[in-house]
Amino acid sequence: MALRHAVLAALLEEELSGYQLAKAFDVGVANFWYARPQQLYAELTRLEEDGLVAGRDVPQDSRPNKRLFHVTEAGLTELETFTAASAKPAFVRDDLLVKVQAADHVDISDLIAQLTERAQIAQAKIDLFGTLLRRLRDDRTEEEFLRHGDRVGPYLTCLRGVAFERENLNWCTRTITVLEERRRIHARY
Amino acid sequence: MALRHAVLAALLEEELSGYQLAKAFDVGVANFWYARPQQLYAELTRLEEDGLVAGRDVPQDSRPNKRLFHVTEAGLTELETFTAASAKPAFVRDDLLVKVQAADHVDISDLIAQLTERAQIAQAKIDLFGTLLRRLRDDRTEEEFLRHGDRVGPYLTCLRGVAFERENLNWCTRTITVLEERRRIHARY
DNA sequence: CCGCTCATGTAACAGGTTACATGATTTA
DNA sequence: TAAATCATGTAACCTGTTACATGAGCGG
Predict the structure, then answer these.
(1) How many helices (H) and strands (E) does chain B have?
(2) Are A13 and A79 members of one domain?
(3) Residue-wise pLDDT tens digits, A96-140
(4) What is the mean pLDDT of residues B99-125?
(5) Quick one: A114 and A71 in the same domain?
(6) What residue ranges in A61-138 does DSSP mark as E strands?
(7) CA of A64 and C1' of C17: distance in angstroms?
(8) What are the residues with a C-beta under 7 Å from any atom of nucleic chain C?
(9) Does the beta-carbon distance from B79 to A106 stay under 8 Å?
(10) Which residue range forms the structural domain that includes residue B134?
């Protein structure tokens, strides 16, 4: 099971409902994992059955009631065990890269369109992460926060997210430039 | 189907056997996708059934015979269609990031060990990709090659691979430094 | 003779995606 | 009144992983 530990890690910081978790694991706030809502609801059910998280009902007026989950002692132990075990390397699996790999055999305009779209998404994420980082470290400088802040885990993963998206953006614009230049040259004949 | 197009893209450059494909999709030569040998053999069978690739038997002495596959006209059309369709964004799903997210609640030494291991893997990949890039562009400078080389797709995906691993390495060493510093401070009490 | 590379698979299972379902409330 | 947000799921399906199986030749 893989999602399992990601959920536990996310719930360490604060009590969350399935719905809130889904938000975090979707749009890109959680840069260390991605999952669909259905998967999260299912996983929370299983985690509770196994006693790794516990939920409590929170009645709300003018909103449907919700269940907030927190990590139990057993859950923390499970996370410790998981952390001690060696991590399998992460792989790249990206449709866009497949398309660029085939660049010399397919329509360049399609490719440029998709690279442009990806670049925009990357920029949006960079902005989002930037805001998030500023909120996490509050007044402090990054250096100061990383030394003495009380919870740096989420900050560190967020730094990874920024770096990744920055490289992503960089590569997209570079690739677009190359492909456009080649199209221009080709168009002369 | 996802692997399908990755296989087609890989076969564009040269005729390959299942075994050769497996090599390319494993160790990290193909930086645009990852797959296990079993999956590739299965996918090649399906692709051939669907007429998107065609194989030919190559008898070898002092080696088992093999089947080399190449992309058919129908296969190329399929790739074009795929490229024209909009790509779904790629997500992060990394065990190591989950562990770092939980950094404030788990054993730091375990974390540092795994970050170190990951950093070494990243360095190895950077070297590998560097060699590959030099081979691809031959004598030419990168600028020159990207403008006038005849097949730049694999080069561009490889550039993405280098950038990714460089950021990976960077983040790992930075994170190690932060965690070690915090451990040092903590140890005083 | 042991382990590695070449060469190709099958079968059972775990994990993730897509489609579908429901229902209340707030905002435009 | 239509769309978005809050809130939670079920069921069928597709994809990918793990474990296992086979067999020949080459290098130490």
Answers:
(1) 8, 2
(2) yes
(3) 999 999 999 999 999 999 999 999 999 999 999 999 999 999 999
(4) 96
(5) no
(6) 66-71
(7) 27
(8) A 1-3, 34-36, 38-39, 62-64; B 17-20, 22-23, 37-38, 41-42, 44-45, 60, 63-67, 88, 91, 93
(9) yes
(10) 95-187
